[in-house]
Every structure is written in C-alpha cells, then in structure tokens.
Design a protein that fits this description.
- By secondary structure, the chain is α+β, with helices and mostly antiparallel strands.
- It has a single domain, classed as VSR Endonuclease (Endonuclease, Chain A, 3-Layer(aba) Sandwich).
- The chain has a 4-stranded mixed β-sheet, with helices on both faces.
Length: 120
C-alpha cells in the first residue's frame, strides 16, 4: 500500500508537534533529514491512522518513535498504537528520549543496521 489512511484532523496537530519536539527528537532529526540516513527520506510528525508517528520513511515502511516523558503511564496505549501501525505492514523502532540524547551515534548506527538488514 503506497498511501496509508490517516485522520485528517491530525494534520494541524502534527505541524504543532514539529514546533514542540523533545530534545531527543530534534537531535535524531538532525541525523535523519536531507537523506542523510543511507539516502532515505524521512518525514517528521507523520499522521498515520489516528496517530502521529515521530518519524516515517515510506520506502522502508518504517516508523521511528522517540519515547520521552509524555509516554510515561501510557504503555498500554503505546502498545495498542504500535500494534495498529504494524497491522499496516510497517515496522516500528522505539528509542528512549534519554538514550537518543546520551547516545545519538549509537541510535543512528542501530537504525542504519536495521535498514541494511532489510535491503540486503
């Protein structure tokens, strides 16, 4: 499927989220934008179904989530959300915001490794 359904009401909210990103999201975006990750294009705050994915790469069918303090206490919701997204055939990679802030290079290497495993 080349186009995934999404709640059009989330478009405005996703734009607002771009302006209110966590430090981890900002740092990770620096490593993903402008095709820096093996030449792949990533989108920020991409609406999918009734959710907003932190990062999305259409050709890889990949969603990357950075879990910050807003996810505390929402583990059941996050699990359901991830399950619904995966039902579309997408893969979800999750990283803790603190981990991204403290080990950005390690996170980028992990993403790169996942991509290389998929394309080889």
């Amino acid at each position: 499927m080349s186009h995934f359904p999404y709640n059009k009401n989330l478009k405005q909210y996703s734009q607002e989220n771009r302006n209110e990103s966590t430090l981890g999201e900002i740092l990770l975006w620096e490593g993903l934008k402008k095709k820096q990750m093996l030449g792949y294009t990533f989108n920020r705050q991409k609406p999918l179904l009734n959710y907003i994915a932190d990062f999305y790469c259409k050709p890889l069918m990949l969603v990357i989530e950075v879990d910050g303090s807003s996810h505390i206490g929402k583990e059941v919701y996050d699990k359901k959300r991830q399950s619904n997204i995966e039902e579309l055939g997408l893969t979800v990679l999750r990283f803790d915001d603190g981990c991204v802030r403290q080990n950005l290079n390690g996170v980028l290497i992990e993403i790169e490794k996942w991509i290389l495993e998929q394309v080889n």
